[in-house]
Amino acid sequence: MKIIVAAGKIENQRTDGAVLLLFEGEKLGPIAERVDKALGGTITRLLKRGDFKPRPGTVHLIYPEGRIAAERLVLAGMGKRSELTLNRLRQAAGKAAPYLRAAGATDVAISSGAIGLDEGETAQALTEGSMLGLYRFLKYKTNEENDVKREIRALTILTENAALVGTLQKGVKAGEAVAESTVMARDMVSSPSADMTPTIIAANVRHIAKEFGLRLQVLERQQMEKLGMGGLLGVASGSVQPPKFIIIEYRRGGKKPFIAIVGKTITFDSGGISIKPAENMDRMKDDMSGGAAVIGAIRSAAVLKLPLNIVGLLPATENMPSGSAYKPGDVLRTLSGKTIEVVNTDAEGRLVLSDALTYACRYRPAVIVDIATLTGACRIALGQEAVGMLGTNEKFKNKLHEAGEKTGERVWEMPLWEGYYDQIKSDIADMKNTGGRDGGLITAAALLSKFVQNYPWVHLDIAGTAWTDKDRPYTPKGATGIGVRLLTQFLRDYEKGK
Ligand code: BES
Ligand code: MN
Ligand code: ZN
Predict the structure, then answer these.
(1) Closest CA to 156 of 182, 127, 118, 116
(2) Which of 32, 36, 53, 378 is the most exposed place for a label (fewest CB within 10 A)?
(3) Is 276 a catalytic residue?
(4) Contact 234/332 with Cβ under 8 angstroms?
């Protein structure tokens, strides 16, 4: 889809579908009022009758029949103006665009004026909302079984102030960068594990590295053995798929210290010998969502040419049961030298992350952020609405919280208090890999904290948010691509020193 910024009036725009944003509980704004007049008062009547209430996420289709230049007009509800956020804009665009696509439009225009938010950010949000709302995963759908419907080819973001075109274009560029990267992450997560093995992920990253001139290193099993990555190798021991430790460096920050981002990349989590129940096990192809988020964020940073040094670290393997698999009771010696008693082979994420976090410390990073579908307990605690956050540094936790509010990928902090550490004490090793059911989100993070030395560190648990069971305004059912926009925003604000 091509996204164009143009100066003009929505009622004059020749398009298959025009989108008009409407606020709840107030008189029509100047743009809507002109459109309403051209339509002979249709909008006023609709609102008066209560046939359409401009609540957030609602849309209403009108056929203007020649009274304005557009073939179709969609009214998109924005809720109250006093409650306006960028997320409301994403939601409106994310609802209106697929609605118009379903109606048959291939060319859409949306009016961005008279909103009251930063214009560049408005354009970015409209871009993200439309691109992400229009997302479909069609790779495995044949044309015979499904009429693959037409796509929207062009989206025009309209302003009535020609002086703003440049600002809006910048916003569109930023929106495209993060939305394309999110789409990439969603595609990776949605793909069956048979087609998204550690080897294939490494090849995908190689592709991106080539495209953007990034430095890439992929450690093979032998090299991991030499280094002593007992956590990752333990988990990998049950799988016939060779594990990969993927290191991707983006360097545009001169002498600045690295920001390390670490993503759990379990391409399929069967649970291993502590095998999971059959129900919903298919979902465990999404256990590489953290890795996908890291790849997506680095890709966005590269597109946006952020003046930073970033290293992405992806411990990639399957977690499978087999005759060679690691077993409950085993003790693994991690890259740090610390030992972990395996109580449950299904608590594998923290094992692979322990090695990756230790590796991250080699960069003497300014901050380490890890992102992982780590615990079912996270989903129990926060549902599908929030990313769980724990960490050792107030400043960076605040920055991630702010990035969450801005992007709509919201994070909520949980405590990492001393008492929780008692739960992961082992009788025979330095620690054990599960702390029981109580506070499972926290005890998992407590284990990770043992591997970050004194570097500022923030952990993000995306077990509840990597996948959505229901359609959301700009996140259709399935893989959400969470973390790409959150981490990119964090990086952009970091760069600005905010
Ligand atoms: N990948 C899972 C966490 C998960 C569960 C993500 C459900 C998304 C939905 C993780 O590896 C896991 O299995 N965690 C266990 C830990 C337990 C054995 C201590 C869990 O949460 O049940
Ligand atoms: Mn598991
Ligand atoms: Zn897992």
Answers:
(1) 127
(2) 53
(3) yes
(4) yes
Strand 244-251 versus strand 215-219 pairing type? antiparallel
Measured from the CB, is residue 347 less than 6 Å from ligand 1? yes
Q: Compute how many other C-beta atoms are within 10 angstroms of the C-beta atom of residue 98.
A: 21
pLDDT, position 148: 62
Residue written as token pair 């996908």: 292
Distances (CA, A) of 78 to 53, 89, 175: 10, 7, 20
Q: Whose CA is nearest to atom 6 of ligand 1?
A: 463
Q: Tell which residue, 319, 326, 354, 307, has the closest CA to residue 451.
A: 354
351 touches 232 (CB < 8 A): yes
Q: Which ligand number lies closest to the CA of residue 378?
A: 1
Q: Decide whether any atom of ligand 1 lies within 6 Å of the 344 Cβ.
A: yes
For ligand 1, say whether the CB of 286 is within 6 Å of any of its atoms. Answer: no
The answer to whether residue 289 scores a pLDDT higher than 90 is: yes
- Distance, in Å, from the CA atom of 482 to the CA atom of 186, rounded to the nearest integer, reads 8
> What does the chain come to in residues?
498
Catalytic residue among 285, 350, 379, 399: 350
- Provide the 3-class DSSP secondary structure of residue 4: strand
C-alpha angle with apex 453: 448 to 457, nearest 5 degrees?
60
How far is it, in rounded angstroms, from Cα 349 to Cα 210? 29
For residue 145, pLDDT over 90 is answered with no
| 137 burial level (CB within 10 Å; 0-12, 13-18, 19+) | middle
pTM for the model: 0.97
376 CB near ligand 1 (under 6 Å)? yes
Q: List, for residues 361-387, the tens digit of each pLDDT value.
A: 999 999 999 999 999 999 999 999 999
Alpha carbon nearest to ligand 1 atom 8, residue: 463
**What does the pLDDT look like over 302-360, one tens digit per residue?**
999 999 999 999 999 999 999 999 999 999 999 999 999 999 999 999 999 999 999 99
pLDDT per residue over 26-55, tens digit each?
A: 999 999 999 999 999 999 999 999 999 999
Q: State residue 143's pLDDT score.
A: 75
Helix (H) or strand (E) holding 395: helix 394-407
DSSP H or E segment with residue 63 = none
